[in-house]
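call fold target=Site-specific integrase
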Amino acid sequence: MFDTWQEARDHLDEVRVAMRTNAWVDPDIGNRTVESYANEMIERRRKKKKNNNTTKNYASHIRCHIIPFAGKRAAQTLKRRDTMAFVDFLMERPGIDEASTVVQVFKTWRLLMNYMIDEDVPLPGNIVSRIDLPEVTERESVALTPEQVAALAAAMREVEPRWEILVWIGACAGLREGEAFGLKRSAVAWQNDLIYIEEQRQEGKAAGLKTKASYATLPVDHFLIERLAEHIARYPQVPPVSEDRERERRRMGYQVPPDESLIVTNRYGRPMRGSAFNVKWRTAVERAGLPSGTRFHALKHFYTTRLGASGHDPKTVQALSRHAEFSETWDTYAHPPLAVEGITVRAFGALFASADGERTAA
């Protein structure tokens, strides 16, 4: 409130000048809570169909760490010292055992601070600048040998036979986990030893790939084509059941899932989910005698290194690994462009000849 009419008029004049020069800031805009801005940021990402896994990670960081620390604070009251206090809060928080987790959650905090600044919340310009973070020890990459890959495939065959093919897809085509889950029968050029990498699966749902460079028409070793054909013949989408089981299913209202042409599904014929696969993966890793931290991505690393060792030049290896940018002619192709013209990949069949024999005998 104003004491005099003149004070009110002077204030109105100041506001008008500020609005004409784009310098006016709504005095109430920073009174909303940090939690409300955080939820708004996540909801906007979802509406814009941003990467689902990334959005889920942000939402988890916000729910588990940011809201408990500052969720009820008015956004405009935050200072740089609060960011430093947040890092200390994370380092002392039960359940956070690695410096890398602190850094990842801090990145979500930084993203939220920048989002609020973009929403005209009056925050200090240096609120996330020059923050001292804990040193992160780089994760040691597991370099698999052909023998270890074969042992991993054999272990997965014992743990969950339907999912052995995922080991071969990762090792012989370099697909990421979600890409392997999303590979379809229709995405394999069976007579030409090609696969079209066009989508991935996240939480069972179709999603775009990580980057534009991830899309490709990829030449693969015929060894992999044979494994894919063998898998499809051996594991139909929905395994046959006894007549009694079929009657029980009908009684319970069971419906056969739609055929999405996926090469790999769970035992109920539904799209793969990472949570279920990772349980079996860890068991197979242990049974194969591999380091406990071996991730599915180690198969992509194996793929890249074996291509280089087989004589392909570095640029070809980079293209086959789908780490390169595509040309501007991208949208003119019915399928994504061929990763490398005139290349036949034969780097894997000879490596796993013995494993192939063991599988056939089994």
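return ok
The chain has a mean pLDDT of 85. The domain at 32-119 is CATH 1.10.150 (DNA polymerase; domain 1).
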